[in-house]
Amino acid sequence: MRSDVLEDYHGALRHMSQPSGTEEERNESMTSGKHGITVLIIDDDEFTRQKAKMILEDNFPYEVLTSPSGMDGVDSLIRNNVHLILLDVTMPGWSGFKTLSVIREKVLLRNIPVIMLTAAADRDSIIRASRYKVEDYIRKPFLPEELVSRVAKVVWEHWPDEGFETLSWILRNGSEPWTEDTISEM
Fold this sequence. Notes:
Elements: H1 3-15, H2 23-30, E1 38-42, H3 46-59, E2 63-67, H4 70-79, E3 84-88, H5 96-105, E4 114-118, H6 123-131, E5 136-139, H7 144-158, H8 160-173, H9 180-184
Parallel strand pairs: 1-2, 1-3, 3-4, 4-5
Helix pairs in contact: 4-5, 7-8
């Protein structure tokens, strides 16, 4: 994608939603060291949501939001300036694919990159996901370094400037590399 198109897209994402929270909350967020990327995790499993949130917050300077269902996730997408979605395939109520179809129908949401989380990456689901332009698939249970590398790859591809900012942040803050000991503690 051309860089001027990418910059227009990124700028549109930043301006399409009203600022949320009080002025004090927005000022605190701006000084918290968080960068412009917001990730939304939509998964009905509390453990998976919290594990993914913890991994992302420990390794990236991004805001990480969570939602327990597809319908709540779409509502969160409308209320927040989300840049990347991690979406579970199998959920009660709206499945991941139902949620994805609703997201792709909405003009202001349809171009948000999605990484699907799934316990079973069968061929039919992968083909179906590709029709919705899903960026990647992560099988559950996932290893922390797999989640980190896949998210970093998508951010780097869609927002190269944020990718450089993230790398600088990691180097300054010494994000802990994942080891066997760290993984077994989860």
